[in-house]
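User: Sequence in, structure out. Go.
Assistant: Echoing your sequence, followed by the structure tokens.
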Amino acid sequence: MHPNINVRNVAGLNIPQHDYLSISYHGSTNNIQTVTYKEGGSGGQTVATLTFSYTTNPPTTDDTPLASVTRS
């Protein structure tokens, strides 16, 4: 088991305590669509979601340039 590690808080993108995350991708590309953070395992409560936007939305090829990240 890994020890708890302090993560630097970045203004506006602070991710609350969590013990699970899932990543979804745009189609068959390697471009991340969302990262969902949960407390209480895979079926637990969502504590934050990062949504990624690209210069072409939705991206249809790998390695599309990232335009923005929004936390909700």
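User: And one key feature?
Assistant: The chain is about 0% helix and 40% strand.
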